[in-house]
Amino acid sequence: MAAGLMHYCRNDFDQAKSLFTRALSMHKGNDQARMMLYLIDFITDKAEKSSYQKALMTLDWRSPAEFFGYLAKIIGGQIDINTAVTLGDTDQETSLLHYIAGLIEIKQGHRALAKSHFRKALSKTTGADRWSYLMAMARLEDLFKAQLETMPESPEKTAYRSEAAAFSQSIRNNWIVKAKSQKDLAPLQTKLIQDSVSSSEKQAILGKIRETDKNNVNWLVQSAYYNAMDEKWEQALAQTRQLLKSPGRESASRLAGGLLEPLILNRLGRADEAKTSLETFQNRIEDPWYREISACLLDLTKETSLAEKAGQQPAYLLTGHTALGLWMEGKNDTKQALRHYKEALGSYRDDRMEYQFAGERIKKLQETTGH
User: Fold this and answer.
1) What is the H or E stretch that residue 128 is in?
2) CATH class of the structural domain 192-369
3) 246's torsion region: left (phi>0), alpha (psi -120 to 50) or beta?
4) Domain boundaries, the chain
């Protein structure tokens, strides 16, 4: 993959395509390789016939790679890029959105706008996203070089060359600092996925991470779940409302965080507010599954129907049963809450916060009831 990236950044698309194709053949679930192949098709004017587009566009909140699905829809013209660049959930996403915007502007012959987007992409790169940094830097330096080639030898050309070189060097220096900061955060992030670390300890760790990674919506949602695990319901509620105040796309984190607000309100015994919040959530979102969960919570006679629709899809089982578990807590039905939380753990989707939440709520409820 790394070798493919190097060739991609050098505009050696044939060799890059060969390497990414090989990577994809070795692991059919390599959506990053699939995304890079789609980008190559787009750059080389083959996007409309790309065999990778359809697979990428099926990616949604159920997949850890759902952001690639969002990017594919932008490239395919289904989502307006000018709106999308304002809706990244993290600095890394915002960086990639500006990178895609730059590629689109180049296609349309708007080199000045492309340059602006690549600069913004670089300003948003984090130490964790070397790929975004290298891709945006390569494209920006291509534009600098193309601009210089059109300029006659003159003091203006000399000044532009010096300005471009200084900018590139400053970006490199900044990224080195960011990479070091990310290296320092890595041990903390590792602790977040360790079962031996308590939710309160994870909350403290998350606080340190958020001091550095301030614009990451995922951390905000994760923090809300940790507070809910420890029954700090009001703090969790405040965080879900903080999330709802900020604009964003319908991502996995925003769907999870949006649904958490009515669930917490119901757990606090504020049933009328919970119902209003749930109806607002249902009307605001487009995702069919989260709308089904909302409908079920508003009318529990639909629980059997929800289970049937979930089938054996792990993401559906996890999100549906976790929501029902917390809703049943609000109705003081501990037996049913435990049943749903245990069903949620049967999804084995331990990459999602709902999985940790279900496990912690089982412990808490069993401690309380002695069962």
Assistant:
1) none
2) mainly alpha
3) beta
4) 2-182, 192-369
